[in-house]
Amino acid sequence: MLDLGRTFLQSVERSPHALAIIDGDRRLTYADWYGIIQRTAAGLQDTGLARGDHLLVVLQNRFEMATLHWACQFLGVIVTPLNWRAKPEEIDYCATDAQAKAIVFEAASAEAVADSPVAQALPRIAVGGVAGGTIAFERLQERAPEVPILEANSDDYSLMLYTSGTTGKPKGVPRRHRHERAAALAHVAQNLYGRGERTLGVMPLYHTMGVRSLLAMAMVDGLFVCVPKFDSGYAVRCIEQERLSCLYLVPTLYHDMLSWHAANGGDLSSVTKLGFAGAPMHDALLKRLNETIKPQLFVNHYGSSEVYTFSIDQDATKKPGSAGRAGINTRLRVVKLNATSPDDLAAVGEEGQIIADLAGDEAFEAYLNRPDANAKSIRDGWYFTGDTGYFDQDGDLFVSGRVDDMIISGGENISPVDIESVLSLHPAVDEVAVAGLKDERWGQRVVAFVKCKTETDAEALDAHCKNSDLLNFKRPREYVFVREIPKSPVGKILRRKLVAGEYEPATPAVEQQAS
Questions:
Q1: Are 35 and 43 in contact (CB under 8 A)?
Q2: Going by DSSP bridges, is the β-strand pair 297-303/246-249 parallel, antiparallel, or unpaired?
Q3: Contact 66, 226 (CB under 8 A)
Q4: What is the pLDDT of residues 369-426, one digit of tens each?
Q5: Quick one: which H or E segment has residue 23?
Q6: Is-contact 387 364, C-beta < 8 A?
Q7: Domain 406-513's class?
Q8: pLDDT (tens digit, 9 = 90+) per residue, 351-366?
Q9: Per its UniProt record, what PROSITE patterns does this chain match (predicted)?
Q10: How far apart are CA 77 and CA 181, in angstroms?
Q11: Residues 6+ apart with CB under 8 A from 389
Q12: Where are the domains of the chain?
């Protein structure tokens, strides 16, 4: 199998004059970008980085971030990106865990890097003229290599992503070139990308969705438009001005973009392919997106950093909530919630834990330096995702939530996602998240946290649930009206914050009991 450096070369050779990347006023063809990438790889080499070393990168989605990602693929260095909002202690932990040989930062991350003792002991590559570095990014490009740098092979590690670490220390997920290339090829195939697609590079390049968009565009000689920090108006203008053809975003960003578009307008007609991942998309947002953009293809992609694709549904509106069937490189099972063996299968329609075969081409092998996490998640060659779900009678997978998010009320297992989908269809509801709060009688009671777009109350929402097909025992027993639903930087609902009371009540604060 080709490594990723040679994969990029394929596009340079096929379409040297095709536009490859845009960042503000910077517009580069594949041939021009390749020259910069090669010089950057030579500069990293001169800084002391060699094949197998980790380069810690704390940048937003900008030209330099994408360039460094590709330079590492040619040099055989393991690009190790962190959230640009990372705190000093997170940088300390990850730099130590990965034994990073250098760090790259910009203005947005400069203070955290300055306050990180481990980072201060490393070579520090400064982007955008920011102070505090030992070398400027531009200095990396002073020397063109005498012969093209092609140091990596398909078995070398390409990338290490860190999981969000919402329940503890983040876990490093090392992925080889062949894992990454297989995942990118699958992404192209599963989204039916053609030659010359154009996408919005807004999902962060420290997240698997952002990396997949970057690699997939190179595979089809396509265009990656950098968006350093999501802004709905800027995103709509990019789509309109650059005639972008495909989007791959988390539901939260679609929600925000549609809200901006409804108020301000904009031409979205160039977009023919939509994909989403990272979190379930509720029925109301599915309908709004489909009606506004009218895509030819609407893909629900379910996956993770560890195993890029679990399943896909290429017609997301046909059976709302369905995550479809296993991806082209994957085998899936649903096992009983308390299963310790991959052979302890749940029945059709029975909610259990979703697991994936680690023999798949996209699958990682193990977490870095985390035997505890490996013991919990890897059993007999299968990856236990920690997600709950079930197969329906047609063989389609439904993802119902996280094992840790499951609400157990009066001895019944209740998934938040089903309830959220029903409530999302109420015309007054903008966003909703459901969690279980401690209850002396029931163990946990079902509570809906609601962000409204128009005025409503608990009685109206409860009547809506009663008139739906939601089973009575799943109905929320309490409604809490909030200003915002707390989310991670990539749009995942942070239920633990709701349970802990870390939210701002709507004004006037309304917390009402359902009958």
A1: no
A2: unpaired
A3: yes
A4: 999 999 999 999 999 999 999 999 999 999 988 888 888 887 777 888 889 989 999 9
A5: strand 19-23
A6: no
A7: alpha beta
A8: 999 999 999 999 999 9
A9: AMP_BINDING
A10: 16
A11: 323, 334, 351, 352, 354, 397, 398, 399, 400
A12: 406-513
Tokens found for residue 388 = 């709950």
Q: How far apart are CA 256 and CA 235, in angstroms?
A: 10
The 3-class secondary structure across 302-337, one letter per residue, is EECCCECEEEEECECCCCCCEEEEECCCCCEEEECC
- Mean pLDDT for all residues in the chain: 94
Q: What share of the chain has pLDDT > 90, as a percent?
A: 86
Nearest-5° Cα angle at 46, 41 to 48: 100
Distances (CA, A) of 446 to 85, 404, 407, 500, 511: 33, 15, 7, 15, 13
Query: pLDDT digits over 61-88, tens only?
Result: 999 999 999 999 999 999 999 999 999 9
The structure tokens 């991670």 sit at 488
Q: What count of residues does the chain have?
A: 515
Encoded tokens for 181: 């290339």
pLDDT band at 168 (very low <50, low <70, confident <90, very high): low
Q: Which two tokens stand for residue 369?
A: 């330096």
Q: Which parts of 347-494 fold into alpha helices (H)? A: 371-377, 416-424, 458-466
Q: Which amino acid is at 178?
A: R
Q: Where does 76-123 have alpha helices with state H?
A: 88-98, 107-114, 117-120
Helix (H, G, I), strand (E, B) or coil at 277: coil
Contact between 293 and 249 (Cβ < 8 Å): no
Tokens coding 25: 């006023």
Question: Which amino acid, one-letter code, is at 400?
Answer: S
Residue 166 pLDDT: 46
